[in-house]
Design goal:
mainly alpha; 17 helices; two-stranded antiparallel sheet; 71% helix; 4% strand
Length: 428
């Protein structure tokens, strides 16, 4: 009897193990829907994690945002340089081997580029600290020579590492790395400079890109019918236009709100400050100062009649129309950074640049438009908005790097006599 009862039980257990596979084969649409639902949940969860982490670092201070930019830049650099190892199918021009020095030199050039760019930012934005310290002064005055020497060392190392059988791969990687440094590392340098010029020059442009991406999806799903570009079949003309209008309106409102906070508009002088410090204060750039636009008399009469009160002027801040132009760029030009990345992925026949962010693909898939937006913001700000006033740090740099020790002492004596002549006691 025991043997007879065991066989049906064993058979039932075996059938129960096979049953899920049969069900999945019999209902592939259900399995596909479950997979899409799981991907959507993962994507949503990590979206909130990224937003929460981003806002937390934003409130913690400028130094944390710079670290975040550096981490993103490093991950993107790794993802893009990794693509070089993807060989075309059937390419037998060279043996499928790896050059032992390629990865080392790859990261060496990355480190040298960051040393140069971050050093330039530190020297420019913290002159008052760097040139008042004797040890840091040597670093500042020789920074570019040191950077160039380090690059030449890498270049010589690359030439010395050339080997027969690896030449095509080595020269291809050399060009690939320098292209990546230009498009990613240099762009990240401008984004860091935006942060140091004032958090608002990083926060608002980044928001505009995110806002445009979201509205392009919403308008595309609801009324999208006409394809926009072949590189991205899901992009539609309706979504593109709808996102433009929505981003401009919301962007101006968003910028107007955040320009009220000193933490957002003040250039960085101390990396230790955060959003909760009450001592953050500065003389605001004129673009953040409210002004009144006098309404022409006929229009003033009309508005006063309609609203039953006297309306003779409209308050505005110049920053609002600057945000308008930034929003136009974020909506009309920055998306082409995404199209460029789409073409890049098609060239290598991949769906995503990596899997750094669950549900979102690689970091490059999220940052492609941000790099272009960051560069434009920096060029726009430095060309049209930034005030080039004389600063203590700038004068100190000129004195330390341009005068001898005896001339510096002479300058101190002359300045001391001048201040004493103004009735100011000077104790040296």
């Amino acid at each position: 009897m025991p043997e007879i009862t065991q066989k049906p039980v064993a058979k039932a257990v075996a059938n129960s193990k096979i049953e899920p596979a049969k069900v999945e084969e019999a209902n592939p649409q259900g399995a596909e829907k479950a997979k899409k639902r799981q991907n959507a949940l993962t994507r949503t969860l990590w979206t909130f994690i990224m937003i929460g982490g981003f806002i937390t670092l934003l409130l913690m201070g400028h130094a944390y945002m710079i670290i975040l930019v550096f981490i993103c830049q490093t991950v993107v650099y790794r993802e893009v340089t990794t693509l070089f190892s993807l060989r075309q199918k059937g390419d037998k021009s060279e043996p499928d081997r790896k050059d032992p020095w390629s990865k080392t030199l790859n990261w060496y050039f990355f480190a040298v580029a960051n040393y140069f760019l971050y050093g330039e930012s530190i020297i420019y934005y913290f002159k008052h600290v760097v040139f008042s310290d004797a040890q840091l002064t040597g670093f500042a005055t020789n920074h570019r020579f040191i950077s160039f020497s380090l690059y030449i060392l890498g270049f010589v190392g690359f030439v010395m590492s050339l080997k027969r059988g690896y030449l095509k791969q080595q020269f291809g990687l050399f060009c690939w790395v320098h292209m990546t440094l230009l498009l990613i590392v240099v762009s990240s340098h401008f984004i860091v400079n935006n942060i140091l010029e004032g958090m608002i020059w990083f926060w608002v442009p980044a928001f505009l890109v995110i806002c445009n991406d979201i509205f392009a999806y919403i308008w595309g799903v609801t009324i999208g019918r006409t394809p926009l570009i072949k590189l991205s079949p899901k992009k539609t003309v309706e979504g593109f236009v709808g996102a433009f209008v929505s981003t401009v309106i919301l962007g101006v409102l968003w910028g107007t709100y955040f320009m009220r906070f000193q933490y957002m508009i003040c250039p960085v002088r101390d990396l230790g400050v955060n959003a909760f410090d009450t001592g953050v204060a500065c003389t605001p750039n004129p673009v953040f100062v409210w002004r009144d636009w006098s309404i022409p008399a006929p229009l003033s009469v009309l508005l006063s009649t309609v609203f039953a009160r006297s309306i003779t002027s409209i308050p505005y801040a110049p920053y609002q129309y600057h945000v308008f132009f930034l929003a136009c760029f974020a909506s009309l030009v920055a998306p082409f950074g995404g199209f460029f990345a789409s073409g890049f992925k098609r060239a290598f026949d991949i769906k995503d640049f990596g899997h750094s962010i669950p549900g979102h693909g690689g970091m490059t898939d999220r940052m492609d438009c941000q790099f272009l937006m960051g560069v434009f913001t920096y060029v726009y700000y430095t060309s049209l908005i930034r005030e080039n006033n004389v600063t203590v740090g700038g004068l100190l740099q000129m004195i330390v790097s341009g005068l001898t020790a005896s001339e510096q002492l002479e300058l101190m004596g002359d300045l001391k006599r001048y201040l004493e002549g103004q009735g100011i006691a000077v104790h040296l």
